[in-house]
Prior knowledge:
By secondary structure, the protein is α/β, with parallel strands linked by helices. It has helices at residues 3-18, 74-87, 97-101, 107-115, 131-141, 152-157, 168-178, 194-201, 218-226, 232-235, 241-249, 267-275, 285-293, 296-317, 322-325, 334-342, 348-351, and strands spanning 31-33, 50-52, 55-57, 61-63, 90-92, 121-126, 145-150, 183-187, 207-209, 257-261, 280-283, 330-332.
Amino acid sequence: MTGWRQSRxxxxxxxxxxLADGPGASGFADISLVHNCLPNLGWDELDISSSIAGISINxxxxxxxxxxGAHDVxxxxxxxxxxxxxxxxxxxxxxxxxxLECPEVLQSYKIVRKKNPDGIIFANLGAYATPKQAQxxxxxxxxxxxxxxLNVAQELIMTEGDRNFSGYLANxxxxxxxxxxxxxVKEVGCGIAKEQAKLLAEIGIKAIDVGGMGxxxxxxxxxxxxxxxxxxxxxxxxxxxxxxxxxxMSVLPKHMDMIVSGGIRTSLDVVKSLALGGIATxxxxxxxxxxxxxxxxxAMSWFDNFLREIKCYMLLSGAAxxxxxxxxxxxITGYSKEWLMARGIDxxxxxxxx
Length: 354
């Protein structure tokens, strides 16, 4: 295995923990849920379980992909898997291409299934992977689904990154036809517009992960790795997460699911994401930071409170479950409203929902 790939994985962890989110905003500040003073609900009626592509999950959080493929991250991946196991939370590994190139780092991925034998785990590869490689990635960790990630902007900033992105859609379609688990397509921090969401929906994938702007910024990470001084507008390239979610929902067929990730930092962010139509939300850096800087017991205690807060917001919105959240009224203002109106999407429909 080439050393640069291993060092890149270590750099991703280093800079994801040290760099701030953004500088682009996720757009959740433009989203306001309408308070329900007569929710007609009791605490025991609240249900935060959900499902992704037919896979049942106990809570609407996914610990999204961030690492793997280097000996030094094996311990961290094991900690993430333990956390996922104890909290009954779905998780994804980072890109497994490294292990396909060099079997000596297989353990950095396999440890996830070892530590979380009965959990929901997603495999992960780039859109350039072959269908055979995708199936090998699934078998490597006995995954229930596979994420195919899109990270064109990140690759362009990377000194050693790809420069040819031709044929991605056709290749993803081939992966869908070949693998024996649901395929989820996710962006890595720049969001997905409605035009590309529609194309993806036509090739048989089961879910789209927004992966919008506003959270961990892989453009900034790659710039830091290569000691590049990028303009602020370059670091703000992409579609804010909340805006991307609305764009996707405007064209998403009913049989497909949407996962919202990119700057999910609070329990209210989660609830807003679900109210926008997400069936689940993805988060990585906050959990990894707690595991790295504190310990698993602290992280589990934080997570219990995080889920309790989600239930509080559901009750205040009058929503007994995740599906009901997608029906509660919300108001979209500011830059998000201006963007969506310019894109031909009527935001008033969200404010008049019942």
